[in-house]
Amino acid sequence: MEGRYIITEVAHDGEPLTPTNAAGKYIRESGCLVRDHIPISCRLWKFNNPNEQGIVVPEREKELIWYDLKQHFTLLEGSEELVKKWTLKRMATQFQTVKKNLTNTYIKQGKTSKFTREFAKLKDHWDSFLEYKCSELGIQWVRRNKENASKKIYHHTLGQAGYNPEMA
């Protein structure tokens, strides 16, 4: 078990809680796996209709990064399915965040990444990502999402991670 982190407590929704250093490493590791193994040319994390199948992250890829994550962490017995469900939801958010940050940092400012360090694995998919983001379909998608966001009545202010139970 050397080099493995043991998660000793899991929230009712499956979020790893304690020890806090292992839970934090779990979340960061999942984000790194998403950034390194899921191509940015995929537009969606899951598909809602069969027409989207070619632009969605394949289930096999999700299973592979889940397997990689489990190689470094030991989960509380009997909690694996619950933690997996929570982790895949978190990975979906992390996937969108990576793409949003790339869009804001590079595309909106007219820059191109040097594809070094953590971005080296993105190089092969950058052209298709850029093509989609600049296409009429990509612009239409952004416009529709902005319109839907403007209709919100209640705006959360906690960020993507939500409420931190330690603050209670």
Q: What this model shows, in words?
A:
The model has no long low-confidence stretch (mean pLDDT 85). The chain starts with a strand and ends in an 18-residue tail after the last helix. It contains five helices and four strands; from the N terminus they run E-E-E-H-H-E-H-H-H. The strands form two sheets. It has a two-stranded parallel ribbon. A two-stranded antiparallel ribbon has the order 2-3.
How would you sum up the major sheet?
2 strands, parallel
Uncertain runs are: none
Distance between the termini: 33 Å
Using the CA coordinates, give the radius of gyration: 18 Å
Strand neighbour order, sheet with most strands: 1-4
Strands, total number: 4
Structurally, how many domains make up the residues? Answer: 1
Count every helix, treating DSSP H or I runs of 4 or more residues as helices: 5
Bulk shape:
globular
* Class from secondary-structure proportions: mainly alpha
